[in-house]
Amino acid sequence: MPIKLKQTESQLQQQCVKWFRLQPEFRNYDGNDLTGHLFSIPNGGKRSAVTGAIMKREGARAGVADLFLMKQTDYYAGLFIELKVGKNKQQDTQIEFEIDCKWAGYKYAVCRSLDEFIATITDYLNDKP
Question: What is the tens place of the pLDDT at every residue in 45-98?
Fold first, then answer.
């Protein structure tokens, strides 16, 4: 019987970004190439104490979402996406960041699969609040 390996959040994020960048309709979206407008915010991961202190002084903030789509719609200033797999839940700092995003006029979504990511992107770009 084959062993089913758990997907990591990094693997999910890589799948989501790959899917987004391969969509031909995003290469000429309202005359713009959206493929470079979705980017990661490398805020997590293990780092030395020195690097962590430098990043904090540079403005790093705990809880910032994994991805950002730099595209305004009629309803939102942009889209932040937090990726979670399995039973992982948002940390308190991530919930605080979500609240701040919504207050500032941004859409915030938590996606647990590639299908959820695709639906979130599709709804967002079709101006569904």
Answer: 677 888 888 888 888 888 999 999 999 999 999 999 999 999 999 999 999 999
Q: Judge contact between 93 and 63, C-beta under 8 A.
A: yes
Residues forming beta bridges with residue 67, ordered by sequence position:
40, 81
The reported pLDDT for the residue numbered 5 is 62
Which amino acid is it at 93?
Answer: T
SS3 38: strand
- What span, in angstroms and rounded, lies between the C-alpha atoms of 26 and 31? 9
What DSSP assignment string belongs to 71-122?
---SS-S-EEEEE--TT----HHHHHHHHHHHHTT-EEEEE-SHHHHHHHHH
